[in-house]
């Protein structure tokens, strides 16, 4: 390292430290798409930006928040609530953007300091603990004030060039993690689009109906919709692929009929999701059972809004305790749902680490009836639909906090074919989700490598490493 290390107060290296406000009109005016993103605390995760729940505001609202317009390389930190002290940087594709009152901008002077390094410094264990301690010093809920941030001290190389080199070693790992996350988001979008096409919008059925009305071949019309290819292009498919496509098209009828859910394909029935994927709750592990080491226990807090089941902050149980609890052992690809609290109805995909994990009470797992041969991806997509999450919330009971039973979950209505199409859907998207699971495992490995190297790099013990090759 060419330069000495020294201490910096944030006010000395930042040209801006400040949070935003709630836009005029409040949450009811937010939209899912628009020109100006509004970044809230739920979008700021440690190391990474989350697109889940990203809201948008109009130009008039954004103009009133011009003083908290996000710029490239801004570092964001959550300053209130349970997510206080979470830190990330914003991808350029989110801009233009503003922040609300729960998020503060840390805008670094690039001639004095590396913004990327500041992100990693604030995320180091020592500095994270200091920030959390500061935030908990108030009389009410956790909060970091502007003064606390301005006077917060970090230790780093004096030369900004060395700072940037140091940060880039860690950034190379985060770039790989971000790329995997983007791939997984695309895979989920592909699976959700297929689910909606087949089981919500009934596009192959409607294609057949239109073809019949126009005097065209209904099977070919359905095949075009299912494959996304023209009839001429499907002729170039290999025989096995073409036959599979034709068989899938045959599973869709050519008319819709009235039902309690509205128009549904003729021959399909209205049933409950529990008729296909019955749920059951986890085991009521006792506080005295939890250990520092052992098998992770999945609780509600471990199910993220992004479809992940987080293993980082889990309590553990000993192997001896789970000998007679095989029913609650979780496998890769299991689908879970939160049954209590503010995040009721959120679902996640289990991806185990080195040890198997186990299901805690108030978390539901979905099984499947014997006619289902190829996974639970239909259930995952069903509960990812916003309207079904809303039904879970509206069906919940409890004055202090919402609760739903497995009976309540199972009672949600859905359309059911003869199970052939559900199995075909599960088989088709299983390929996508196996890639998703492998990417998630790689992300965890990369995160563990980054976290193990972070304190060594920031202490000056090492300066470079062959990040990806060693991952």
TrEMBL record:
Protein's name according to its UniProt entry: Type I restriction enzyme S subunit
Keyword annotations: DNA-binding, Restriction system
Domain Type I restriction modification DNA specificity: 3-189, 265-413
Alphabetical list of CDD domains matching this protein: RMtype1_S_LdeBORF1052P-TRD2-CR2
Family indicated by similarity: Belongs to the type-I restriction system S methylase family.
Organism field: Ancylomarina subtilis
Gene3D superfamilies, alphabetized: DNA methylase specificity domains
Annotated GO MF terms: DNA binding
Coiled coil start-end: none
A Pfam entry, by short name: Methylase_S
Biological processes annotated in GO: DNA restriction-modification system
